[in-house]
Amino acid sequence: MPSHDSSAGGNRSYSDIAIEDRYQMLIDAVRDYAIFMLDPAGRVASWNSGAQRIKGYSPDEIIGRHFSTFYTPEDIAAGKPARELEIAATTGRVEDEGWRVRRDHSRFWANVVISAVRDASGTLLGFAKVTRDMTERTRLAALEHASEVTTQMQIARENEQKRIARELHDDLGQQLTALKMGVALLQTRLQMVTGLTEPLAEARELQAQVDTMAASLRRISADLRPPLLDDLGLSSALDWLVEDFSKRYGIRAIARVPTDSDTDEFAALTIFRIVQEALTNVARHSQAHTVVVSLKRAEDGCMLDISDDGVGAPPVPTAPRDRKSFGLLGMRERVRQLHGTITFDTKPGAGFSVHICFPESSLKGDRSS
Ligand SMILES: Nc1ncnc2c1ncn2[C@@H]1O[C@H](COP(=O)(O)OP(=O)(O)OP(=O)(O)O)[C@@H](O)[C@H]1O
Ligand SMILES: [Mg+2]
């Protein structure tokens, strides 16, 4: 431990401190790494505050104990601690990443470097061991990976939906048109054969049924893939979505969107899906009279707002929800994919608003799919 000169009354400067104390102070100040010495047999000979923080032992508890204490029973059974010392002694250094064990027996993912320490004549004095707790890093890397996988899955799903929507339109849609023409032809022939002046009620019924089927088909494929998004762009698609919503649910819906929204396909689809989900919530939960969807472009990005004048959301329950809701979560995830921010603003009786900001750089990115 550093020798503190209390007689100096705290006025001691760094240059007054003996060189070996300076090293000790330096090592002790490092809190993110466990830095300690092992004797040639692998017993702990020194301990820093980082080691105490990461592994949970105070110096009294650990000094003198064999360093295999930090290894898992499986690694001990496999002879790993001795092997690592042997490699360090022979080659000068060994590096390893794996599970290590804390004082409370919990495990952490560690990066470990063991270096042999020798005197001028080459006699082995012991080993310097530096351990870094990689748990947080590994967790962040796993989260990053998971979110990348989610984005790729979403892109794949959207592409698949696009394909199905196209198939429905091009294949079933054409067949329905042919069917309708067939019924009309049959109807004309029937009238010619029977001499009837009016179309048969059954034929009219059939035609109406075909019309209903065609409308359902259009609705289903539009739900799968917004038809105008690919052809006319985000602004027209949002206008269509809002108008269609109003017709479907009888809620006044106003779209305030610029004529040219100038985004790439992924950003356009993301914004479209968010508005779609927000409007579904308005239909399901709000009892609103009016909802306003507004998209504003600025130099540094764009702002999207969906606000209704309905009953608002109930206060957030303190107890865990018995049913999982994914709508707002999904919106958050989509916003995160475009590096934006999202806030929900609601009070019981005072409507529900979703405010989103996307940075400019995320609206026209270089995306691989
Ligand atoms: N416009 C709104 N008006 C009032 N309450 C809303 C509104 N939007 C969301 N909420 C509240 O927020 C909750 C969570 O919404 P969320 O979309 O996450 O889930 P959900 O709509 O209940 O289910 P789903 O997972 O099918 O979307 C809703 O259950 C509702 O209580
Ligand atoms: Mg919902």
From TrEMBL:
Keywords: Kinase, Transferase, Two-component regulatory system. Pfam families: HATPase_c, HisKA_3, PAS_9. PANTHER family: NITRATE/NITRITE SENSOR PROTEIN NARX-RELATED, OXYGEN SENSOR HISTIDINE KINASE NREB. This is PAS domain S-box-containing protein. One of its GO terms (molecular function) is protein dimerization activity. Residues 94-146 form the PAC domain. Residues 167-362 form the Histidine kinase domain. InterPro entries: HATPase_C_sf, HATPase_dom, His_kinase_dom, PAS, PAS-assoc_C, PAS-like_dom_sf, Sensor_HK_TwoCompSys, Sig_transdc_His_kin_sub3_dim/P. Residues 19-75 form the PAS domain. GO terms for cellular component: membrane. The lineage of its organism: Bacteria, Pseudomonadati, Pseudomonadota, Betaproteobacteria, Burkholderiales. It comes from the Bacteria.
